[in-house]
Write a structure and sequence with these properties.
Elements (H helix, E strand, L loop, with lengths): L1 H17 L18 E7 L7 E7 L7 E8 L9 E5 L40 H5 L7 E7 L16 E5 L5 E11 L11
The protein binds 2-acetamido-2-deoxy-beta-D-glucopyranose (2 copies) and copper (II) ion.
Copper (II) ion binds next to strand 4 and strand 6.
Amino acid sequence: MLSHVFTVLAAVLGVIAQGTGELGDAMEVMNNPPGVTYVAMFEGSEMSPVMGEVVAMADESGTGINFELMLMGLPENGGPYSYHLHAAPVPEDGNCTGTMAHLDPYMRGQNPPCDMEMPQTCEVGDLSGKHGKVDGPDVSKSFTDKYAALEPSNDAFFGDLSIVIHYANSTRLACANFMVEEMPMQGSGGPRK
Ligand SMILES: *[C@@H]1O[C@H](CO)[C@@H](O)[C@H](O)[C@H]1NC(C)=O
Ligand SMILES: *[C@@H]1O[C@H](CO)[C@@H](O)[C@H](O)[C@H]1NC(C)=O
Ligand SMILES: [Cu+2]
């Protein structure tokens, strides 16, 4: 009997330690709009030396989002750098604090840390937790995230949000807003009726 209680307790603790959102595991997004490209531009400034862009787009399958990070000017010391989709856009003053916390539609929180082997249990916005941190000064990295959405009615939609790069000590190094770049071609030439 007692051992049964312990078994149940261990199972419960196991679930807690593994980390899963209050609303469950993240669901794969299958209906992302193919070819609609969103870009977050890092312009470089006195506040942040980072320049370059992060491109996000669904491929033909519409499943998940392909991310491409092309960045320059990350400080040589201070990494490895984490990067996340955050829950609010960068405010006018450019202060990355204004981007709030990670995009976390399943209400998982940051603890315990994301387990790369179980990406569905991670915060949707915790891209570096799921796909690996990066080091400076230059970054060229691509990956597909199955849980991020560019379909606006999905709670994991990040097309009007931001991406934030953090130092190893979690201080925010740089941030940028996603903007839609191009809509896929609708037929050929001429305005649509
Ligand atoms: C975090 O690390 C960076 C780079 O090493 C440093 O400039 C910054 O002051 C640190 N922030 C805190 C709060 O320690
Ligand atoms: C950014 O905003 C935070 C919180 O409002 C504030 O503490 C911090 O000083 C601001 N940083 C800059 C560089 O203005
Ligand atoms: Cu972050």
